[in-house]
Specification:
The protein contains 17 helices and 16 strands. The chain is an alpha/beta fold. α12 runs parallel beside α16. It binds pyridoxal-5'-phosphate.
Length: 468
């Protein structure tokens, strides 16, 4: 397993946090108590936590130092001024609205821009973006590129299908479309990047039909790295100039800073439209806080300002993407079918392909996520029919996801290469006895985002056969 080239970390460890590996029997007991839902496990019962790359970043010494400079004034703080300057340098927009995290930014923006009965179009909505659209009684429609669901070795699988996007707009009428969003990188199709040429086309379509064009840019720096290293014409440009070019093409940006902000909490909207900024600020004050802190402490804002400068450092990004590649290669070596090419923040295992004996409605992804915990104390998340399936509210028909994936998201600057080797060894143990895994059924679920809280029951081999 260790024959593959190991990426070299561009940092060393200054402070450590203890983690504990429970015995297999203890892990089995814990996952049963958690009703087979990895979100319901206690973090202290997890050895390696790959549930998300969101808010799990290790901060740098410079960020911790910046925390001490936090200005906690209610209004007009120096922290906000520093934050605004950094955001402006990268995103090049006039106005900045801080929020406590990405979904608050979505809720705010959609409260003003999204009208009932309209459509929000996206290369692929992330689950909170979809839920916020539905909350406004609008419809969320995805336009992933045709390559995203194939095994084709295409680098920009996160792209928007601009042809289908334009046909949809002309068919429904531009006045029915509240907003077009490009999500970078495209989390829900495997953390795949979007090319600059694709963004330019989307931007031109939105201009032609006079529709607001926004980015959901939680992982913008990782996306810029892919553009620099894989898209012809960008190899000699710096990450910040690529970001400037990209954001110049949109009307505004919403960001969950818990990813490429390199912080544990935070988010924002940045935009040029003054009238919209004023409306959003009025609402911000009601639901998040005053316009210069928006639900964040001054110290959080300072850590974020520093994080945004660190994330666009080429050496940081080069290691980050290389470590994910290393992880993916080891997983492949263990026998796991993964989404390729490997994306920016996670390795996605195709559980549908790994476990063909478990039908989609019995959640093969969840079977793998549970096995990773039981075998190695590794926590992951299903991105398949448990997360994206459900019942159509209009027809009452049950639907499943397009693919049954499990996401192994790598927190930034947290795990070493030897942790990654351990995860691949755990995967190998599972691969060698994959036929033994069985599916699950939902015992209890909520109306929205059911995967966070649902309770599951394991199906015995016999039950699984009778419910097919
Ligand atoms: C693409 C994308 N958009 C939005 C969000 C929501 O952000 P937050 O968790 O900060 O609310 C996430 C979170 O993972 C995401 O990946």
């Amino acid at each position: 397993m260790s024959r593959k080239r190991q990426p070299a970390e561009p940092y060393r460890i200054k402070s450590i946090e203890q983690i504990k590996l429970l015995s297999r029997d203890q892990r089995l007991k814990r996952i049963r108590e958690a009703k087979f839902n990895t979100f319901k496990l206690d973090a202290s019962d997890v050895y390696i936590d790959l549930l998300t790359d969101s808010g799990t970043t290790a901060m740098s010494n410079k960020q911790w130092a910046a925390i001490m400079m936090g200005d906690e004034s209610y209004a007009g703080s120096d922290s906000f001024k520093r934050f605004k300057k950094t955001v402006n340098e990268i995103f090049c927009k006039k106005f900045l609205i801080p929020c406590h995290q990405g979904r608050a930014a979505e809720n705010l923006l959609f409260s003003v821009l999204v009208s009932e009965g309209s459509y929000v179009l996206n290369n692929t909505h992330f689950d909170t973006t979809r839920a916020n659209t539905l909350l406004k009684k609008a419809l969320a429609v995805d336009f992933p590129s045709p390559e995203s669901f194939t095994n084709q070795d295409y680098r920009f699988k996160g792209n928007m299908d601009n042809q289908r996007l334009e046909s949809f707009i002309s068919e429904k009428g531009a006045e029915k479309i509240s907003l077009v969003i490009t999500t970078v990188t495209n989390n829900s199709v495997g953390g795949q990047p979007v090319s600059m040429s694709n963004i330019k086309e989307t931007s031109a379509i939105c201009k032609k039909y006079n529709i607001p064009f926004y980015f959901d840019c939680a992982r913008f720096a990782e996306n810029c790295y892919f553009i620099k290293t894989e898209e012809p014409g960008y190899e000699d440009m710096s990450i910040i100039s690529i970001a400037n070019e990209m954001f110049d093409l949109c009307d505004g940006v919403m960001m969950s800073a818990k990813k490429d902000g390199l912080v544990n909490t935070g988010g924002f909207i940045t935009l040029d439209d003054e009238k919209l900024y004023q409306r959003l600020t009025e609402l911000l004050i009601v639901i998040e806080g005053f316009s210069t802190y928006g639900g964040l402490a001054g110290r959080d804002i300072d850590a974020l300002a520093v994080g945004l400068t660190e994330v666009i450092d080429f050496d940081y990004l080069d290691f980050r993407i290389d470590q994910i590649r290393y992880f993916g290669e080891l997983m492949k070596e263990s026998g796991m079918p993964i989404v390729e090419p490997i994306g920016g923040h996670a390795v996605f295992v195709d559980a549908g392909q790994l476990l063909p004996h478990i039908p989609d409605h019995q959640f093969p992804g969840q079977a793998l996520a549970v096995a990773l915990y039981v075998e190695g104390g590794v926590r992951t998340v299903e991105l398949g029919s448990l997360m994206f399936g459900g019942t159509d509210p209009n027809t009452g028909q049950k639907f499943t996801a397009r693919r049954e994936l499990v996401r192994l998201a790598l927190p930034r600057r947290v795990y070493t290469n030897s942790h990654i080797q351990y995860i691949a060894e755990t995967a190998k143990t599972i691969f060698d006895q994959k036929e033994k895994l069985t599916g699950f059924e939902i015992k209890k679920q909520s109306a929205f985002l059911r995967h966070f809280t649902c309770e599951l029951g394991i199906l015995s081999k016999k039950e699984a056969a009778t419910t097919v």
